[in-house]
Amino acid sequence: MNETILQVITQFTGRPDQDVNRGNQDIPSSGDPTQFAVVSTEYSKQLVGQLAEQGFTRAHRFLILPSPNKPRWLLPLGNPHRTREGLHIYTPYALVARMLKRAVGTILGAGWTGRKSDRVLIASKKPLPLEVLVGEITGEMKPVFVLSLGTPSQFRKLTVQVMRPNGETLGYIKLPLTDAANQRVRHEAEVLERLWKIAKLRAHVPRVLHAGPWNGGYILFQSCGPSQPGEMEFGPAHETFLRTLWHARQMERPGQAIVEELSAKWAQASLQMDSEWQDLGAETLRRASRELSGLGIPCGIMHGDFAPWNTRGGNRRLFVFDWEAAEWDAPISWDIFHFHFQVATLLNRNTNSVARADKTSGGKSIFWLYLLRTICQGLEEEPTGHSGVERRLQFLRDEIQQA
Fold first, then answer.
1. pTM of the model as a whole
2. Whether 323 contacts 195, CB under 8 Å
3. Which residue has the higher pLDDT, 381 or 297?
4. Residue-averaged pLDDT of the chain
5. Rounded to whole angstroms, how far apart are CA atoms 219 and 173?
6. Please, are residues 280 and 398 in contact by the beta-carbon 8 Å criterion?
């Protein structure tokens, strides 16, 4: 069985690895009182019956997509409607990905359950700790789960969509898979708790249903928002949300202080780069220091990863989630830059939209510093190679050369 799936199951069951039998067809002895759960990739009605005889009467069956060798999602089996509803955990924006999701949803709704090797069974003697937690908070005693395994990095985490048996989504749970991810999930919980205290923001952000220690790490259970995907184009709803966010905490910081912060981060991150890119970063900082000297920069709360796929729409308002990278005193224009840059580069839109983004506060220098900041972040997340870092470096080089 794929090691990532095993790691995810350990977190999902909320029990140490030694308490979970990981065999395929090995049924634990009824005389083993310590065995809490059984994981099997050989699902069959006969196996379920055998497990039930041994006391493993609670079962979660999953379909592994796209494959057991490259798992990204575990969708619940047993009811075609629930399986299809589980796809809501994935909201693609690229045309090909949207078409593929629609096609998969159609065949899942028709009752397709994948190949035998694409399934995994988790059977337990008692409700899983997650089931108990969800029951205490929401009152749903038979929750259904969808698992999203995240992307490989030092910040990888398991995201769990929690549903009622009828497919209604109750919220999302984040469980870190690394120590670094543990800190990010804890930070997001703290951010959401603070944002919820600001009355005007409550309609725009998830509510923390539960946060605290979990299985040697940390857990965050948050409410869900509207089901409609956020708009791909930056529009009035985005502007209204950002202005509400900025008004919640306003300040002005010296431009030189922002340059110095980025200089320290770049000094560390650039050690991984060749001399050409090191020189580019140094030149960027030099020009920004010169142009921002003596200027005050409007700052406030920054989401940190403001992009269409981290938003939902509905009732003419924007709902924004994934606050792991939030900061409290960053230049307010950086969220706008990020939205335009992500849409332009990841969805193959015209990069002119980036050039049209608001660069009035501090001129182009603040935009250059945004690029440098995200380059540092990308290197921190994936030191051995990051396509997003390459795109930003090339874009920054073009900006500097044209200035």
1. 0.90
2. yes
3. 297
4. 88
5. 7
6. no
